[in-house]
Amino acid sequence: MSTQYVKAVLFDLDGTLIDTAADFIRIIGRMSEQNNWKTPPEEAIREQVSAGAAAMVSLMLKYNDQPLTDELVQQYRAQFLAEYEADICVDSCVFKELEPLLTYYEKKQIPWGIVTNKPRDLSVKLLDELNLEERCSVLVCPDDVSITKPDPEPLYLALEKLELPRGIANSVIYVGDHIRDIQAGAAAGMTTILAGYGYIPPEDQQDLDTWGADYVVETPKKLVKLLKSKRFDYL
């Protein structure tokens, strides 16, 4: 088995590095209660987290037989985001097995960072609440680029901020839980790891091997085991 040398490790945010689902579930529950609606099942909400606020709001509306008009979706999306920003980190946390991994990289002076489709103001606020903002070597959000994932532009920007040339992109690992993460990482020439433990709907679970990731891991523990295995060496 050949060893791959790694210069940096990048993560998607929600569902990959940080488990944010509980806060989204809480807000959807509160909004449902405010409208005297039924709250969608927690697992159904969790599966929509990586698809964004509009997807979670649409789930709530569909579950209560409400019309899925653009106007209504945007109205509830705006409310959802306002409530989330005001109360962003009640139950969110780094996946517990991954916190020691971040410390491991820091001790080895290997930069780790985040490339996410979450807006910058929310990302920064969440990282600050979790005491991760200063530890994170690079944060790239949709606000920073003209084209978001699955386009590779956000990952190219991360390389630039880390002062790493694109020619050694295969020495950078990108971990994500959505097909757009794998597509973006592959397009940028990075080594991709699919976090199968993330916010993935059941209908997609059977197709994970077709997403084209270099590796697929089913749990955070298995991600740590892979990243610390002899497959990788950190320079």
Kindly describe this structure.
With 235 residues, this protein is an alpha/beta fold. The chain has two domains: 4-20 and 92-234, Rossmann fold; 21-86, no CATH class. It has helices spanning 21-34, 42-48, 53-63, 70-86, 98-107, 120-129, 153-161, 179-187, 202-205, 220-227; strands at residues 4-6, 8-11, 18-19, 93-94, 112-115, 138-140, 172-176, 191-195, 215-217, 232-234. The strands form three sheets. The protein has a six-stranded parallel beta sheet with strand order 6-5-2-7-8-9, sandwiched between helices. Helix 3 (53-63) crosses helix 4 (70-86). The mean pLDDT is 96.
Topology:
Layout: E1 4-6, E2 8-11, E3 18-19, H1 21-34, H2 42-48, H3 53-63, H4 70-86, E4 93-94, H5 98-107, E5 112-115, H6 120-129, E6 138-140, H7 153-161, E7 172-176, H8 179-187, E8 191-195, H9 202-205, E9 215-217, H10 220-227, E10 232-234
Parallel strand pairs: 1-10, 2-5, 2-7, 5-6, 7-8, 8-9
Antiparallel strand pairs: 3-4
Helix pairs in contact: 3-4
Alpha-beta content class: alpha/beta
Determine the mean pLDDT: 96
CATH superfamily of the largest domain: HAD superfamily/HAD-like
What about the largest sheet? 6 strands, parallel
Percentage of residues in strands? 5-15%
Helix content: 40-55%
Protein traits:
235 residues, alpha/beta, 2 domains, 10 helices
Condensed summary:
This protein is of the alpha/beta class.
